[in-house]
Design goal:
The protein is mainly α. The protein has a single domain (about 45-250), classed as MetI-like (MetI-like fold, Orthogonal Bundle), CATH 1.10.3720.10. It has helices at about 1-25, 45-50, 55-85, 90-105, 105-120, 125-150, 155-165, 170-195, 200-205, 215-220, 225-250. Helix 8 (about 170-195) packs antiparallel against helix 11. The longest helix is centred in the first third of the chain and has 34 residues, at about 55-85. The chain is globular and about 70 Å long.
């Protein structure tokens, strides 16, 4: 009886989580501009997405920012994780704590603080500020992911490499980084996903002349939910699902 109740509860949770998404995907193929009634199957809304120049431009901006932000965050985050793993220095505990603070900090607080910083420094809002902001909130996720992988290493492998004459850089490049490769890839994919669909922080730092796909989608939703929005949301969900799945698969590798 308890097992049946447990499975029923689990099924209810999955229904509440995924039923709205399933409805959204279904209505993206609805042959009607109304999202309240089903009139037949069509793929015209996806064709219209491909014909929308403004939407494609916003998607291109989002893709460029996500690629650059994920790459920069992975590079800096990996170096940070290596420093926390390999060296002892004053303030190491504080540095580790600050990494987790960035993860737990509300996005609206980060958005406002970054906006104030950019204005104080005289940096015009646009591509540069968006990229810096995305690297900032992606960085701690990469650092935590890579550091968790490094802490699972057998330290005797590093010591063996050094005993055999490997320098510090040779040890890092030929021993540490190859073993941490799945975490690096997972961190990059996670950063790409976070950057691609961020709305709150991007709203504060994007400025009026630089439009990204999540902001474009949000402005479209404010005028009402249409089949084009359903189709665009479906594309974003599938892309995010694929990237997150790849990241999870890489994190589970041994």
């Amino acid at each position: 009886m308890i097992q049946v109740a447990s499975r029923a509860y689990q099924g209810l949770v999955y229904v509440l989580l995924y039923l709205p998404i399933a409805v959204l995907i279904a209505f993206s193929f609805n042959d009607s501009r109304s999202s309240l009634s089903w009139r037949g199957f069509t793929t015209d809304w996806y064709v219209k997405l491909l014909e929308d120049g403004d939407l494609l431009a916003a998607a291109g901006n989002s893709a460029v920012v996500a690629l650059l932000a994920a790459t920069c965050a992975t590079l800096v985050g990996t170096l940070t994780a290596l420093a926390l793993y390999r060296y002892r220095f004053r303030g190491k505990g504080l540095a580790e704590g600050l990494v987790f603070v960035l993860i737990m900090a509300p996005e609206i607080v980060m958005g406002i603080s970054l906006l104030i910083l950019f204005v104080a420094l005289g940096i015009g809002l646009g591509f540069t500020t968006v990229l810096l902001a995305h690297v900032t909130f992606c960085l701690p996720f990469v650092t935590v992911t890579v550091l968790a992988r490094l802490n699972g290493f057998d330290r005797f492998l590093v010591e063996a490499a050094q005993d055999l004459g490997a320098s510090e850089w040779q040890t890092v490049l030929r021993v540490v980084l190859p073993m941490a490769a799945p975490a690096l890839a997972a961190g990059w994919l996670l950063s790409f996903t976070l950057s691609l669909d961020d709305v709150i922080i991007t709203t504060f730092v994007a400025g009026p002349d630089y439009e990204l796909l999540p902001l474009k989608l949000y402005s479209m939703v404010r005028r009402g939910v249409t089949p084009e929005i359903n189709a665009l949301s479906t594309v974003l969900f599938v892309l995010t699902l694929v990237v997150a799945g790849l990241a999870q698969r890489l994190m589970q590798r041994r």
